[in-house]
Protein 1
Amino acid sequence: MSVPKYITLAGGDKMPRLGFGTWQASESEVEDAVTAALEAGYRHIDTAAAYENEKAIGRALNRWIGNDPDRRKELFVVTKLPPSGNSVKHVEEFFAASLANLGLEYLDLYLIHTPFGFEYVPGDLHPKNPDGSMKFDFTTDLMAVWKELIKIKESGRVRHIGVSNMNEEQINRFTKLYKPECLQIEINVTCQQTSLVAEAKRLGIPVVAYSPLGSRAMAQVLAAKTGREYPNLLELPEVKSIATAHSRSSAQILLRYLLQCGVAAIPKSTSPKRIKENISVWDLELSDSEMAALRALDRGDDGRICDFSFFPGVEKHPEFPFKRH
Ligand SMILES: NC(=O)c1ccc[n+]([C@@H]2O[C@H](COP(=O)([O-])OP(=O)(O)OC[C@H]3O[C@@H](n4cnc5c(N)ncnc54)[C@H](OP(=O)(O)O)[C@@H]3O)[C@@H](O)[C@H]2O)c1
């Protein structure tokens, strides 16, 4: 099965189907990682104001672009409005800061990062109460925030706008006003989100899979906090046996699976070797029976890793997108 290397977005722009993730890559390591990713052939780079690494990414991007406007056109740069910006008053400020941090004149895609909002506290993207819980803004008006993103798109400073971590009801609500041009959600073999992906497909919204490898570093942090067990997707016997059959790595099998499912994926790595490995999946093909074996690993809601439990109290927010346990 051949997989196109791009997904065509509204208006005809092409988003590279395999992108590069940068969450939990610190300022000091991400600059080299993005440079290695560009050298390896990635052109879709994903970041977020909340990752606090946009400036270093901007340095790597601008060094690579140099004075060549065609190089900028080849790139697909994505960043996100942080939860503290989920209010009409603050969208423009956060968007302008991201653009300045990245040192770009325009972005390719700007996403609302989460449906829930935090209180706006200058200089603090993760404001906490004295008891350690997050300072949520329980009055988040997502449609009002969406209208602000639409205005920014109309201003020409971003080519596409979209949403992340939204559920089916939320994407339908957005669509009534203006169809999101991309939906970025967790998708991997244990959290396949088939119903949400089918709904996005029905609505004609391209889907990007985050944490495609199972976000091992985050899973370990969450396991220590919650006592929950998170499977290591790279070590699942079904994944390993398919990897052995193709003389490939588990990561390559996990990524190729998602591409053959029709979504885009944005694996993160700061290791030059793994950065190259993760983009070397175009000459690999999984059979129907291998696809079926991987499809069977889905654990539905129980397979979700990024459930935002690292933000204590998040389930109480009226826009919390996942099933409440
Ligand atoms: N919208 C959202 O709310 C949201 C949430 C989560 C993630 N994201 C985006 O999606 C990106 C990817 O998700 P993620 O970072 O959560 O997790 P991920 O890409 O599933 O996994 C990253 C982890 O896998 C390791 N890794 C990478 N390639 C590997 C390979 N070939 N073999 C073995 N281990 C490998 C990385 O370690 P090394 O770095 O040491 O290689 C890192 O610990 C993020 O970076 C971010 O850009 C978005």
Protein 2
Amino acid sequence: MLVVGALPRISPGRFATLLADAGSPAAGEALACWQAVAREGVDPLFALAVFHHESKLGTVGVVAQFDLRNPGATRTSRTGAGEPVEVPSRGQFVRYPNWTEGFRDLARRLVDPGYVYRQRGADTVEAIIPLWAPVSDGNAPGSYIRAVLDFMQRHAEEPVPGVPLEIALVPRGAANRPGYPLRVAWVTVHETANENPGADARAHQRFVHSGGGPEGVSFHFVVDDQRIVQLLPTTENGWHAGDGAQGPGNRTSVALELCVNRDGDWERTQEHGARLVVALCRAFGLTPEQVVPHQHWSGKQCPRRLLAQGFEGFRARVRQRLSAPAGEVIEIGPFKRRLGHGFLSLWRRLENNDPTLPLRILGWPLSDEFGYGAATYQVFERAVLKYAPNEPEPWRVHVAPLDEGAQVARWARERGLTA
Ligand SMILES: [Zn+2]
């Protein structure tokens, strides 16, 4: 199972809920931990599975006893964060300043071009674990692999909600898989410009797998009205932007192609593309302004249909979905409300202390989540919860009617968003 260069298979909300439910000491940093791993291009569900196998999410073993804040139970640091600690009869481990740095280091070692995983092309659970926990160190990689895969299968969510995602990577060593390290700073949107019947995602998968034509093109994802196919890991560059071997389009952006085959449903393809872009923005902490047409890099008239319709329309679709994150519908009192993105885990954590506590502190939820400015809010009787992923403190509880909360609650009331 591909876990380096793969989209997150767990949402920040579910990640937070699993840590909170286990009584993990990392629960308070859940969102920052998820982000630290996803930003490196590593699946946070894999990091969580390793954390679970090593220390039951920080609750047992040397990680708990010696307060290491070290989800991977690593003995050295690749990021430079943390300090060595000598554990009697177990040798050296790293103690990190916080859990977030521990998670960042877990992910960084997997993508670091100067380290063993990348050098040996180990990007799947099956290839990583024997290097992570070698037999020579007294480990049993076979059972470790099974435990990680089992944990991941139990807790996996769809990386792109509602759209089947297939992974069919171009083989290493192919001319159109150059393998230069990519740190995603942009999303580049293309169209295939092939309107022939049957020119769908699978057809373009075959095209890229057989060399990508005379120019040797490649891109990370191809999208049609049925599915998304991933062709390159998000941790490696492709040749798609037409701005040269060192161009920022080719070297700092992740690329998707929208199929325009006339026997496909163009509206559905755009919707699938927007959902993929939202997943990429969440994973890499990008704003809709960092989603650009191919034209941005080379002037080429691509993506032709979206440019003709106005690229801003596609961006607006992304912006709307980004600010209205998916959640779970739970029944709270007389209301059926959608609590997500960690709002639910906050509610549950309060409930765990005292079942009446969330109601006493927050009151009934009066709205679902909604986007306002760059943040997501939810209005309760006595408070307004705010989630702003790009702020240093993404979580805020505003006690209405004292501050920003009152303003947001009024805005929501005027638009009929609250009960
Ligand atoms: Zn293009």
